[in-house]
Amino acid sequence: MTRVAILALSKWAHFSWLPRGERALTERAQVDANADLLARFPRLAAMQTTPAMPSFATMPRPACAKVLRVTAALAHARSLRRVISASAQQIFSARIASNLLHAIQRDVRGEQEDTDQNVTLNVLDRVSMTAAGLRVALRTIDDPALRILMELRLPRPVAQCMGNIGVCDMRVETAHDLLDAAYALAGGEAC
């Protein structure tokens, strides 16, 4: 687990969460962005200790998002078994996770029902799949401040889309299993 310093929020958060919606490049801009984030999310300022982030969350942002998309893909492996046309496979490869569709389709989770997330998920939409994976990942995190940090890590539209997605009664162990399998498929090791 890696720790995130509270005064490095402007570097941790995706720039879409920052005050002007652009990267904070100067020291002054970083201070302003940190102050804005702490004002909008007072729970972060109230943290007693620096939270330890799960290993997938500390990967570079694109790799972290890929792990989340693969997590959602595994949760919807049965639906992905229906993706058979060459064009749909190319779309999945370009938008969700390159070279992983066949592995996901062969996964044993494809024999089970898809995870019920109270919404019909477009398995070929990048934002929806990242949001669905983020929802599963948040199921494994108990600390509210850590949950906020996870949301800040990704673009704001992903967190907004996640608001429409539910996890229902997914067990925490199931969410951990999905994340571990996705992390391994995406090139890492088990979380």
Question: Which sheet architecture does the biggest sheet show?
Answer: 2 strands, antiparallel
Low-confidence stretches: none
Q: What gross morphology would you assign?
A: globular
What is the percentage of strand-forming residues? under 5%
Radius of gyration, Cα only, in angstroms?
Answer: 17 Å
State the secondary-structure class: mainly alpha
Percentage of residues assigned to helices:
40-55%
Order of strands, main sheet, comes to 1-2
List keywords for this structure.
191 residues, mainly alpha, two-stranded antiparallel sheet
Overview of the structural elements:
The chain has 191 residues and is mostly helical. It has a domain at 53-185. Helix content is 53%, strand content 2%. The protein has helices spanning 9-12, 27-40, 42-45, 61-75, 77-80, 86-95, 101-106, 126-139, 144-153, 156-162, 172-185, and strands at residues 2-3, 52-53. The protein has a two-stranded antiparallel ribbon. Helix 4 packs across helix 11 (172-185), helix 8 crosses helix 10 (156-162) and helix 8 (126-139) crosses helix 11 (172-185). The longest helix is centred in the middle third of the chain and has 15 residues, at 61-75. The radius of gyration is 17 Å and the shape is globular.
